[in-house]
Amino acid sequence: MSKVILVTGGNTGIGFELVKLLAQKPTVEKVYLGARNPKAGGDANSRERSLSNVEFLQIDVTDPASIGAAKEYIEKKDGRLDGLVNNAALGEFDKNQKATEIDIGLLRQVMEANLFGLIQTTVAFISLLRKSPEAAILNVSSELGSNSSQSKSGQFHAVAYNASKAAVNSYTIALAHELKEDGIKVNAATPGYTQTRMTGYNEIARSSKEGAESLAPWVLLDKDGPTGSFFDPHGKEFPW
Ligand SMILES: NC(=O)c1ccc[n+]([C@@H]2O[C@H](COP(=O)([O-])OP(=O)(O)OC[C@H]3O[C@@H](n4cnc5c(N)ncnc54)[C@H](OP(=O)(O)O)[C@@H]3O)[C@@H](O)[C@H]2O)c1
To answer: Does the keyword Transmembrane helix apply (predicted)?
Structure first.
């Protein structure tokens, strides 16, 4: 089938690479490049002029009015949504995120985008996803959101970010259970440590194209695809 997909935070980093990658897949009809900043979204869209099936759509996941307008736009144009990629997020790794010193304002800001934003976007698009014969929701998570992994290996404890992604994981599990009856696939996946603005373009990390490549399969699932799983960058299940 020809899929219509929305990627939030699609103007840069992994989201931008994912938009490009998905738009080139034969089963994809159109990819909405979601961006909160119209200039950044428009610029990103015009950088990919060769892809005529990419369209910029303004969506700030913390702003219910913009989410509602984006949903209405897709509803009018396409009548359904086949793939929702909840990619938009804040890292704020340059700020103090120590468990004993975290600023509650910072915690709220990160939760607002990474958790509440993701949930309100998802809820708004459920009716359009239900109109698709094979819909998938991909929540872009992180190894840092895995409580099992963090408790054992004690990697990098950035309280606001890690707690937001752990909560996204929890939401993913609940959503997958609820949408099983509708046949909507819901998974979380991590792109792995990737060179983007969020990580200060750290050269030891993988490229954002590689990050996007590891996420793409979970957006293009068919009726027999998995649901309720958390995948690592190599396509293997990762502990929640
Ligand atoms: N990079 C890594 O190593 C890594 C590892 C694991 C998971 N991840 C996850 O991968 C995803 C993409 O991250 P990235 O590394 O590509 O980061 P990035 O380059 O910083 O991009 C983040 C994107 O999210 C957007 N965004 C932030 N708040 C938003 C809001 N309220 N509404 C709409 N868009 C918003 C940003 O828009 P603006 O440009 O307007 O700020 C930007 O487009 C995130 O979910 C991240 O947690 C990344």
So the answer is: no
